[in-house]
Amino acid sequence: MNSKRRADLQRKLSMGAVPKPPAGLAERIKADIPKYLEAVPESTARATFSWSTTFRVAASLMLLMVTALITMRVMEPAREGAPSLAQNEVRKEEKMVPAVLQYRTRPAADGVATTSTRPEAQVELTIEQPLPVPRTAAPQRAREADDEGLSYELAQGERRQDAREEAVAGNLSGRIAPEPATPPAQLADAAAEAPAQSFVAEAAPAPAAAAPPPPASVPAQAATMARTAENAAARKSATGFAPQIVAEAHAGSLDLETPTSVFGISVDPAVFQSIKSAIESGRRPPAQNVNVDAVVNYFAGPPVRAPRRVGLEVEASPAPVDAGRELAILRFTVDTPRVNVPAGGSALPAAKDARVTIDVNHQTVESIHRVGGSPAMTPESALLHNTSVTGLYELQLKPRLRPSQRVATVRLHYRSVETGREYTLEKIVHVHDLVKTWSKASRRHRLASLGALWTQTLTGTSGGPEVAKRAQELATQDPEDTRARDLAKAASATTGGGR
Amino acid sequence: MSTFAQPTDERTLLQAIRQGDQMAAEELVERTYSAVFASIYRLCGDSDLAADLTQETYQKAWAALAGFDGRSQLFTWLYRIAYTTFLNHVRRPRRMTSLDEPDSFDVPDESPRVDDVLADEEEAEGLRKAVMQLPEDLRFTVTAHFWGGLAVKEIAEIEKITTVAIRKRLHRAFSLLETILDEEVR
What we know:
The complex is a heterodimer.
Chain A: H1 3-15, H2 25-31, H3 42-47, H4 51-75, H5 85-96, H6 123-127, H7 137-148, H8 152-170, H9 185-193, H10 218-239, H11 245-253, E1 261-262, E2 265-266, H12 269-280, H13 292-300, E3 311-318, E4 327-335, E5 349-360, E6 365-370, E7 380-384, E8 388-397, E9 406-416, E10 422-430, H14 443-457, H15 464-477, H16 482-494
Antiparallel strand pairs in A: 1-2, 3-4, 4-8, 5-7, 5-9, 6-8, 9-10
Helix pairs in contact in A: 4-5, 7-10, 7-11, 8-10, 10-11, 12-13, 13-14, 14-15, 14-16, 15-16
Chain B: E1 2-4, H1 10-18, H2 22-44, H3 47-64, H4 74-91, H5 112-132, H6 136-147, H7 152-159, H8 163-185
């Protein structure tokens, strides 16, 4: 074979151009991550030293010895008063199962345990380890709820129940084991002896007979959960891991209202509703008073699939209507996980110290301005659950750009309430991300950018009929989408194209 | 397109995932999905399909996580899953025919640079088709090495053969590719 030709072939094989992954692919993949990931397989567990492994080995040896003892006794001639095989089995379990699990073992009428619990569940012992943590308002709130009979614990309890059901399905006992109403005395001792790393929840097969929840009352359970959350929060800072309940405990200490602005961007849904009412009553909303941010955020709406963690979505496209210049729309949206909020309650923080920064490459961008507000955004001390905030930027690009050139980098910095760790999500937009036409952008992007453009048509600038036409297309594509219908109606009414 | 800024070595990341840390799993996705997408795109030449197969790859990866012994690199393991996912797709009986237009560059600017890009694309597509005509063992070796970015040693570990055998495969693959491409020109 000709070596030159072969080298050429190798070069071609290595050099093939690959497009960027489509926007939202990472989010799609992340949404598929199982809520409870697989546990360490036996083969891998063998490679790493852990206390749980040691415990298992010790338990196995004990089991072997007890079995040998029983076998010897069975082989011996029956002695008067010697314990039966069944009684020996029960004693063996009492030795192996940690105290915290004893409530799970339901004695039958004859006093013989009916469930068996694997020793891996020892993880629960360390979760209960008492730590000198200053008390937050969480237990206080739980206590108040206890006194007033509010729905707080009910919602928490529902969540616990859901988690418990999922755990039974997912065979994860370490994370969600229900707390006993009163921790047994042995618990603290056992926890004190437990090694630090063993608190990490391990997956263990569920008992053959599903363990019922403890017979604790709902208020008592809520108080215990709050205390457990405190302890877990303290451990979290030391280890970097913490159960989900930490977020709830922190949330309990912050009595936060649903915000009408995030990062200084108005997200008040009432704004568009009042515009809508005005239009429906035949009045044209005064253009100078329209809150563009709020309109954009109304049309961007929540994500189709709520993220499990704080997420950053960045998308760029040409402008919805060709304005004869090299205009592009850059959108960022920050979404937080969705949780149920009891009636009259407030959403809980998912992140703290959050801020968005946009770094523009001035070699590719002639000018940039945020649609509806000043470019500077304010940081958020607490980013609540159930939050979606969208910011739109209009970019004027320089001519004759290469596809690989960077346009902008969008970063979201935050500290997770759940883990206490700081994260930076970063999305880079290149010129080739802008190559697609506006109609190929995501529905969220199209609705948000068209909504923004519609507010501009209220000032009487041209483009109204085109906006109405595009809005009608969006509404036709998905007749169930109320936002698209609202936009189509509003655009049609304010441009005189209504039927 | 996106990365988690926190540096974590692969072993720690895997350990965290195995302990049920969702954020670690997300970090793995952020670190690898672009490369997985790129390798599948090079196999199939269709951006939308590559995205779907990338998603499917990770679905399989989560399910197979317990079976991953950690001896190979995470990406090597993911690439093997991605490749199998692609093969399964190719072998899957076609029940539906897409009515969409074939994937193309939607470039508004008709500058010569775009022509160059399209010409390169055409050539790359020809090469991709030629690679797809290779026998299975050679095809996997070529795609894993050039499109998946796996080292010869890593491929040898996956295939459980020696590195010399992998090099021989590559040599045979090049000879065959040359023949296939020559036939296309005629």
